[in-house]
Amino acid sequence: MVDRAFGEARLAAVYDRFNSWEGRGDFTFYLPLVMGARSVLDVGCGTGELLRRARRDGHTGRLCGLDPAAAMLEVARGHKDIEWVLGDAEAVRGWVRQFELVVMTGHAFQQLVGDDELRSMLAVVASVLTEDGRFAFETRNPLVREWETWDRRYSDVVTDDDGALVHCVCRVTEPVAGDLVSFTHTFTCDRWEQPEVSHSTLRFLDQNGLAAFLSEAGLVVAEQFGDWDRGRLTASSPEIITLARRGG
Fold this sequence. Notes:
Elements: H1 4-18, H2 26-35, E1 39-43, H3 49-56, E2 62-67, H4 70-76, E3 83-86, E4 99-104, H5 115-128, E5 129-140, H6 150-153, E6 156-159, E7 165-172, E8 180-189, E9 196-203, H7 207-216, E10 219-225, E11 239-246
């Protein structure tokens, strides 16, 4: 029988190698926001790299990472000076007005594929923000149809801690219909007895749809950008990067 926990732990161990700080622009955008807030909740924190970097760079306030993947948090918990919470947003629903900043990086926001799931998460975010707090996150611009390049962009090879090569091949399920895109990552290594396959579905909300969900939760858009250099959001921008706040 396949040991899924073992497989998930194996993938968590190489996650940061496939998603290195140097290879992604979002952390460079989010880190100054984190450093400027006294209390930060990272929803979908994964291995906690953003919060770990903030602590190394001198953040002295409260840092809390939340993720539903036990294997990812096992990696994160190697750093004891940060709070790590296993679960989804429901796990912090009672933490009213405790965070100046809530972030969702790595397009984690797009993993909320159902309306009810999205509404529930946004309601929690609104409740845990302080009165002048901000919610920072990003979603890919659906007009750009980035998924058409994922077989090239997200297929790669890295070296694990034991010096073995781990290959990743990304495949998008065709045809893509509506605002949901499903895909797989298949990981292989000569030292593994079998491949590890990760199945995912992401939701591509447009700018208006996003604003509508935020409004339902009592949140309003404070700023939006189209790329990690804070460029203006246009129809051809790769990202919809949003900083939201509580409505007046």
